[in-house]
Amino acid sequence: MSTGETARRPGVGSALARYARVAPASIALAVVVLATSIATGTLWSVAAVGRPATIWAAGVTTTLQAGSWWTPVTALFVPEDPLQLVATVLLSLTVLAAAERLLGTARTVLAFLVTGVLAVVLGVLLQAGAASIGELWAKATEFDVTLDPTIGIVGALITASAFAASLWRRRIRLLTFSVVLVFVLYNGDQNNVYRLIAALLGLALGVILRRGSIRRLHRSSHQETRTLVAGIVAITAFGPLLALLPPGGFGPLSFVAALFQQPAVDVAQVLSRCDTSYSSNCRAELLLVSVQGPGALLLSVLPLALLLLTAIGLRRGRRFALVLGIVVNAAMLVLPFTALGDITVVADDVSALGPALEVLLWLLAAILVPAASIALLIATRRQFQLRSPRDAFVRFGIVVVCTFGLLALAYLVAALSSLTEFVPDATVADVFASTLRRFVPAGFLSALGTPIIPTAPVVWLLYQWVGPAFWTVFVFATLRLYRASFTGRTVADEEHFRALLREGGGGTLGFMGTWPGNVYWFSADGEAAVAYRVINGIAITLSDPVCPPGRAQRTISEFVQFCDVNSWVPVFYSIHGEYLPVFEALGWPTMSVGEETLMHPQTFDLVGKPWQKVRQAHNRGIKARISTLWTRWDDLSPLIQTQITAVSEQWVSEKELPEMGFTLGGIAELKDPDVRLYLAFDPDGGLQAVTSWLPSWRDGRIVGWTIDFMRRADGSMSGIMEFVIASAAQRMRDEGVEVLSLSGAPLATKPDADLAAAGEGDGEGDGDGATAMDRVLAFLARTLEPAYGFASLFSFKSKFNPTYETLYLAYPDPLALPAIGNAITRAYLPDANAREYVALARTLVR
Exposure pattern of 669-692 as b/e (b: 16+ CB <10 Å)? Predict the structure, then answer.
């Protein structure tokens, strides 16, 4: 960074001081719980019934029966044990501090107390009432007491979510409720139920404090949706492990923990007894023996590991992860019934019927989480479209099948060679069945017949480890499959296309041809290229052909012939006026589809009345000590990369609309090493704005930059984008750049354009078809403005006194216009569904 471009970074001391100013209540809570844990002794021991610390604890026995009315308040300031102390301090200094930054100190204290105290009071009353009618959970927890500051922290966090921007509001609520619900379902002690009540109260309190209409959650970007779905799947993966946490779990799904435990068994005694005399109890005892050892333990947690593997793939948008997640959750639907075996619920009289039915409901509730996960994956399946290349799938299949075959064969050969060393006596069929069982998690074993247990050391070693070894290979093979990408083009194709771009051609928008979704046609001599994508038989090119100026007509004609061979309708989109004579010669109609705004850095200055608005913004930025940075994505620190992503996601989340692509880049596109970023920072190092710039070359030298990605942070300086673009123009002037393009404005017309003008071509059929399409485009420009603001963006660019270049659409047949319009829409909105189009329609009629 140069001196003028270095963003000032605050020191550690000033950062801590600023943190203390923003979150005094959060720091105070951390100090208070540390002090109370020392005073009550919970710093080194667990608060239990009968110990002094329970005088501050809430519960049916203390709050109601003993009349300790103060306990719903004091329970929020005393941790139950050392582990909870650590969790409370960490959550207070992070989660509660984030809530305090949104709410302010006074409202944070109010939210903590109101949601925490009311949650404890309502929870205790609910517990007492349910226990009085014999409800199983309430009876099991009736004599437990609660000391838990995290109840108020959860309530305050959800309250604060009402004040967060839509992106973080959705993240906070969805992930917090997911975690809280999983704890309730799998661990289920009274503390977890109180947290759920506090979270629900936080929703209501947030609406009250906000003093406005209920804020709707807008749609998220595709990447954000993938991240949230992956997060939920990962949270559910840890559910059964949560049931193992003290006090052992009372939730409706807590019994699932038994599937991941290894009950103590005297293996030698069981094998000796069952080898001598195989009794009716031996099958159950041998099942317990079969799940002993580290290998069996690893197989027990296999479903959880596969769900985490699924979450990794979902985060990357992989189709294989979607299928894997559905299959694993389908297996989890079956797991409780295979693991628990025969269940008999006896109700001797009418009074016992209620508890008996409750037990059955709890058992049936075991399908709730996997069924909900399957429904979520199916509902969001359109977000997971990334498929791996065929050769990657072939490699994956070979690795998985060969690994399974070799390990199964190794165990099978060893077992058959020691056929007499099993308990009970084994047959060849038993050994084959046992071979398959080695790869199955322990919870499914009871459905696969009576196990046979080897006594030979070598066979026992294979018995333990062939399953974990196979699934380890499967996991790593899947991770490798996730990394394999299919783009419809090879790396060599892309490198060739980029090399041609560097020689010249493609125009100011040509670099967009390198974006995902485009494939390439190359001329026979390799000196010309066209970037295109095929949608429903329409081959849509992007920007000008990449070729020397003298061979444009030949390049276009050869590409048209290539499309004809493949039965595609060629459409040239966003081409510049210099190519219109080629299409006139072909007899193709053309029409305007937008305007590109161009600046010329070598003549750029901020003098005169036309530049007044930009000059004022530029001067304001200088006075505010806004600094800039010209860089690449890979050269940024992880902190700044995270800030850019957050700014972008915030912008997307505020739009209840499908995310657009094609000629509009996102986060993925600005990570290209050829793309430059121009960032603006405030004096404290906070990101104010981010822009990305696409290069255009001539003879290997960059002669122009085209702006693509533009995002400003919430609370940024007024006029920050004007400041950034003006500063960029000054920098490019000093570097000898010839053209600065503010990119194309879809559906826009330059100020002095004749709105009634038809296409420029004069081929047969041009008039009627182009005029009709122009009327449609004019209508779209008016109706889409409330949704996407194309006209507003075009008006913003006009502040820079640009010159205008019309962008055109060239097509061979007016009768194909409906199909062409649909294909272009699909190009811009590749993942939109009917529901999203309805949301778009709602936006347009508001």
Answer: bbbbeebbbbbbbbeebebbbbbb
